[in-house]
Amino acid sequence: MAKLRDYNMNGTIILGVDAGYGNYKTARCCFPTSVSRSSQPPVFTRDYLEYEGSYYTIGEGHKDFVAEKSMDDDNYILTLAAIAKELKARGLSAAKLHLAVGLPLKWVQAQRDSFREYMMQNRHVDYKYAGKRYTVDIVDCTVMPQCYAAVAESLPDFKGMHMVADIGNGTMNVMILNNGKASEIKSWTVKLGANECFMAIRSLILDRKAEELPAEIIENYLRYGSTDIGDEYKALMEEAAKSYVDKIFAELKAHGYNPNLMKLYIMGGGAKVVELVGDYDCDNVTFNHDIRANAKGYEYFCYMKLRRQKAMSCAG
Fold first, then answer.
1. Which of 114, 119, 244, 250 could form a disulfide with 141 if both were Cys (CB 3.0 to 4.6 A apart)?
2. CATH code of the domain made up of 7-145+294-315
3. Residues with Cβ < 8 Å from 34, sequence gap 6 or more?
4. What is the pTM of this model?
């Protein structure tokens, strides 16, 4: 599990934001990826953002999958909310920031520049969140690969051959490490995130029971591996989850996973359901259930990159 620490460079805070399709994460915070806009403040919650004359309720409802995040205005609002939540956790309301963000492994190269510009569309931002004012200067933004960033600090521990699978809500990132070294030709992004399991559970119960299972029950099952409902519903949820996890392992094998030749490291929001219903050798598979691992990894990865750049500049 990535350590929790603060990174600064020349008085600028390096702040990681993992813009997930199911949840937004920072090093200290996590909240659902959903936002709704209105011209008036909401009545029943203080969890809203006030920005440029509009009010945005955060974390209620469900947001559809959008492959290119820079094409979705909601991601900017959600990023501002993530910044406010993280600053509040650090006891701050004003800061100079270097944003550390990420994209799925195989999308970084094509989308890096547009996503960086999107995140830096306003160098100075003044807004309110939960009734408190935040003043933020965004000095720079570094875009990194998901999955790889999450394990960057612990790469020396990956002795021999490993397959790493980061199962998010919308996508699954997969890479093979050889003694901690990654290769572009052995890294993949597959649209097989935990939301597919969510939809499979909902559809199966609708088919068998003619009932719409509340989203919160399914989300609790996927995140924690248990939920307090009747045995018949539990059995159906497990049946659908097993079918999804079988797809996960079939996909991993299609990309070279062989339990006799390598170890498997599974992380992300979908790791719990794999651990719960998957068919695997416990001695060969490691699970990391820290869903904020990418956000923490972005900060570490960014800090090390900036430190190297600074050293090279001084040497030159």
1. 119
2. 3.30.420.40
3. 58, 59, 60, 61, 62, 63
4. 0.91
Contact 172, 193 (CB under 8 A): yes
List the chain pLDDT tens, one digit each, 316 residues. Answer: 556 789 999 899 999 999 998 899 999 999 999 899 999 998 888 889 999 999 999 987 655 555 555 556 889 999 999 999 999 999 999 999 999 999 999 999 999 999 999 999 999 999 999 999 999 999 999 999 999 999 999 999 999 999 999 999 999 999 999 999 999 999 999 999 999 999 999 999 999 999 999 988 998 898 888 888 999 999 999 999 999 999 999 999 999 999 999 999 999 999 999 999 999 999 999 999 999 999 999 999 999 999 988 887 777 6
**Residue at token pair 């009747």:** 230
Q: What is the Cα–Cα distance from 25 to 149, expressed in whole angstroms?
A: 14
User: 49: closest CA among 61, 34, 66?
Assistant: 34
In which residue are the tokens 């699954």 written? 172
Distance CA 40, CA 280 (A): 52
Q: What ranges make up the beta strands (E) of the chain?
A: 7-9, 12-19, 23-25, 30-32, 35-38, 48-51, 54-58, 94-103, 124-129, 132-145, 161-167, 172-178, 187-190, 263-267, 285-288
Out of 3.30.420.40, 3.20.20.140, 3.40.50.2300, 3.30.1390.10, which CATH number does the structure's domain 157-280 have? 3.30.420.40
Question: What is the separation of C-alpha 172 from the centre of its chain, rounded to a whole number of angstroms?
Answer: 11
Residue 116: both structure tokens together: 């960086």
CA distances for 25 relative to 21, 83, 100, 115, angstroms? 10, 10, 12, 17
Residue 226 Ramachandran class (φ > 0 left, ψ -120 to 50 alpha, else beta): beta
